[in-house]
Design brief:
The protein is mostly helical. It is built from four helices and two strands. Keywords: Membrane, Transmembrane, Transmembrane helix.
Length: about 120
């Protein structure tokens, strides 16, 4: 990995952290009296893109999967041990399950697609 690839990879990891925090902030969003978990859709689109971009940098499993692992770790840490003792991720809430599944499953599928491509 060249120096410029390392810088881009660092920005990808920073993006994963920032996206996880922003998606958690807007997870309990309501429009009127209706629950509106738009961040599940945002996570389903952005996290696989981060994995695909990391896979273009290196064919290594660790490099390609790092945005997914970091996103998941940030979601768990900040979702359970949130600022001020707030618990954003409720185990019995359907929005939590939709959010985690929407971020992790498409990203895991993208990781499999990246690793299945033959090396150039």
């Amino acid at each position: 990995m060249t120096r410029s690839d390392a810088v881009v990879f660092g920005f990808l990891l920073l993006d994963a952290v920032l996206l996880a925090i922003l998606e958690l902030m807007f997870l309990p969003l309501y429009i009127g009296s209706v629950q509106f978990p738009i961040t599940a859709a945002v996570a389903a689109v952005t996290t696989p893109l981060l994995v695909a971009a990391a896979g273009r940098i290196s064919r290594s499993r660790r490099v390609a999967g790092a945005p997914l692992v970091l996103w998941f770790a940030v979601v768990l840490i900040f979702g359970v041990l949130g600022p001020g003792g707030d618990v954003v991720l409720m185990g019995s809430d359907w929005r939590t399950l939709l959010f985690i599944a929407g971020g992790a499953l498409p990203s895991a599928m993208m990781l499999g697609m990246v690793l299945a491509k033959p090396a150039p």
